[in-house]
Amino acid sequence: MMDFGFSLSKSSTLNLDTADLSLYKKLCELSPDARTCMACGSCSATCTAGPFSGMSVRKVILDLQRGRDVKAMVQGCMLCGKCIMVCPRGINTRNLILNLCKIYDR
Ligand code: SF4
Ligand code: SF4
After folding, report:
1. Closest residue to atom 5 of ligand 2, CA basis
2. Which ligand is in closest contact with the Cα of 83?
3. Is residue 2 in a domain?
4. Domain boundaries, position 44
5. H or E segment and range at residue 17
6. Contact 44, 94 (CB under 8 A)
7. What is the pTM of this model?
8. Beta-carbon neighbour count of residue 6 at 10 Å?
9. Measured in angstroms, how far is the CA atom of residue 23 from the centroid of ligand 2?
10. Is 1 within the bounds of a domain?
11. What's residue 12's pLDDT?
12. If you count Cβ atoms within 10 Å of the first and of the last residue's Cβ in the chain, which end, N or C, has fewer?
């Protein structure tokens, strides 16, 4: 095979009809405000832990909506609460993370 000096990335296509959204549904039962997230990224931009751990509330919610596991990311949160202060939708993001921790402990 000829080496062109690059390779194709693995497809990132998602099939939302078959994705397991059970975690997202459980979270929405405990934190209904999660449904109002508009993925603006303000929380991620201000996150204390983000630069060191890869934590991002925006990505947590988006990944859950796509049926992905976010346990490793959530473990990077320090529960400082800075993200609550900047959320334009007034989502209690800290409580959202705490509820996710409860779901994972079950
Ligand atoms: S509570 Fe967690 S997600 Fe929010 S700013 Fe602090 S470390 Fe980041
Ligand atoms: S700041 Fe609020 S609305 Fe924006 S991505 Fe974060 S949780 Fe969603």
Report:
1. 39
2. 1
3. no
4. 22-105
5. none
6. no
7. 0.89
8. 6
9. 18
10. no
11. 82
12. N
Residue 106 is predicted with a pLDDT of 58
Residue nearest atom 1 in ligand 2 by C-alpha distance = 87
Average pLDDT value over all residues in the chain: 94
Is 56 a member of any domain? yes
If one counts the domains in the chain, the total is 1
- Ligand 1 contact, 78 CB (< 6 A): yes
Question: What burial class does residue 15 get, using C-beta atoms within 10 Å of its C-beta: 0-12 exposed, 13-18 middle, 19+ buried?
Answer: exposed
Average pLDDT over every residue of 82-92: 97
Exposed e or buried b per residue across 16-49, where buried means at least 16 C-beta atoms within 10 angstroms of its C-beta: eeeeeeebbebbbeebeebeebeeeebbbebbeb
Quickly count helices (H) and strands (E) in the chain.
7, 0
pLDDT single digits (tens) 45-84: 999 999 999 999 999 999 999 999 999 999 999 999 999 9
Q: Torsions phi, psi of 60, nearest 5?
A: -60, -50
Q: What is the pLDDT of residue 65?
A: 95
Task: Yes or no: say if 82 and 46 are a contact pair by the CB < 8 Å rule.
Answer: yes
